[in-house]
Specification:
The chain is an alpha+beta fold. Helices cover 16% and strands 38% of the residues. The strands form two sheets. Strands 4-5-6-7-8 form a five-stranded antiparallel beta sheet. Strands 1-2-3 form a three-stranded antiparallel beta sheet, with no helix packed on it.
C-alpha cells in the first residue's frame, strides 16, 4: 500500500509513535494508520458484542449449539424475534427443517 501526503503529495513513510504506527510526511503531516493495535482491539470487541446480541449459545452435554436470533413473527404472540436452528428430521436425503423459538413466549414452531 502506497500513501501520499494530502498536503504536498510526497510519499508518506511509516513511523512508530507512542506504540502505534503512523504515516508521516517530511512536511510534518501525520496520518493515523487505521490498522493500529487499538483499532484492531476495538473491532474485536465490536464483533464480540454483535455476537452476544444476536446469537444464543446452548450447551448440551458435550455439544455447543449456536442459534442466531432472527426477525420472525411468532404465530402465538406476534413477537418479532425468534431463535432459529435447523434439524434433519427424517432421512438425510430430505432438506432440513427450520425451527424457530419465540424469544418472548418460548413457543417453538417449524417451517419447511
Ligand atoms: Zn507532506
Ligand atoms: Zn411468542
Amino acid at each position: 500500500m502506497v500513501n501520499f501526503c494530502p498536503e504536498c503529495s510526497s510519499l508518506l513513510r511509516k513511523k512508530r509513535f507512542n506504540g502505534k504506527y503512523v504515516l508521516a510526511c517530511r512536511c510534518g503531516y501525520e496520518e493515523n494508520n487505521t490498522s493500529n493495535e487499538d483499532d484492531l482491539k476495538k473491532k474485536i470487541e465490536d464483533k464480540k458484542n454483535a455476537i452476544s446480541q444476536n446469537l444464543i449459545v446452548i450447551k448440551e452435554e458435550d455439544k455447543i449449539f449456536v442459534h442466531p436470533i432472527v426477525s420472525k413473527y411468532c404465530p402465538k404472540c406476534n413477537h418479532n424475534e425468534a431463535e432459529a436452528w435447523q434439524e434433519q428430521t427424517r432421512s438425510a436425503d430430505e432438506p432440513s427443517t427450520s425451527f424457530f423459538k419465540c424469544r418472548k413466549c418460548k413457543r417453538t414452531w417449524r417451517e419447511y
